[in-house]
Give the backbone structure.
Amino acid sequence: MRLSTAFFGLMILTLPAGQALAAGGASGEPAGGPSGSLAFAMSLYAGGVTLGKVDMDAKFIGDKYHVVSNLETSGVVNVFWQSQIQATSNGKLDKKAMQPSLYDSFYTGHSAKNQEVSLTYENGDPVRLYANPSYPLTGYEVKPEEKKGTFDPLSAVLYIASGVGAEPGNPCSVKAPVFDGRRRYNVGMTKVKPVDIKMDNGLYKGPALLCAIEYKQLSGYKPRVLRDTNFPTINVWVGVFPSAVTGRSFAIPLRVWANTQYGVIAAVTNTLKIDGQPVKSGN
């Protein structure tokens, strides 16, 4: 597996994002109901070398959410995959379900290659895609029925972190169906065991869960990519943190890593705030 493939795979499995993503995106101000927020940032590494950073900032008012994410590569990865990705997503989130309404993103790549993508969700219809510039899908399209009931990449992260789709008491028992404007895949987690952790950066010390992440390609890929299932085992430390909003808590990926032929590729959370307050070890 090439380093670029491994790095891109890790991006999907932390804050899912890729070349077919988009940015900006206006949204109406949600009104009514309790408010809250979730913000965290991660540094990206390969073999101990910093490759970039990614962050997510979500705000909630009542059953509405608005989330913004930024990804920027740095260092050696810029030689073959220099990228900046900004994305926003809006929708509804309650204790039982999530429904995105609009996803926008803007990608800037190597040699000033740009890509805008917007995904619109209406009345249970298949997702409506806008891309500028457009890109060819002939030969490996995602069928309309495969797009139904899916999340955009950013909403998928929030879906997993919110615990909405998980079994009670097991935040790692969750699977997110994702359509990113080009590809259709599932990102799921399963619990391995409870662990006590101490993060090297001092962010958190205390109980967590060791979980395994599965990335399953379904459609929208070139045939040779679909045949390539040579993905390394993805591990994640998940910490559960309560919100000030009654009945709400978040399952946060504190460290995500995979052992590859290029060494350990990892994403490590270095800042985490819930409802505007930094987390405290042992919560």
Q: What stands out?
A: The longest strand covers residues 184-198.
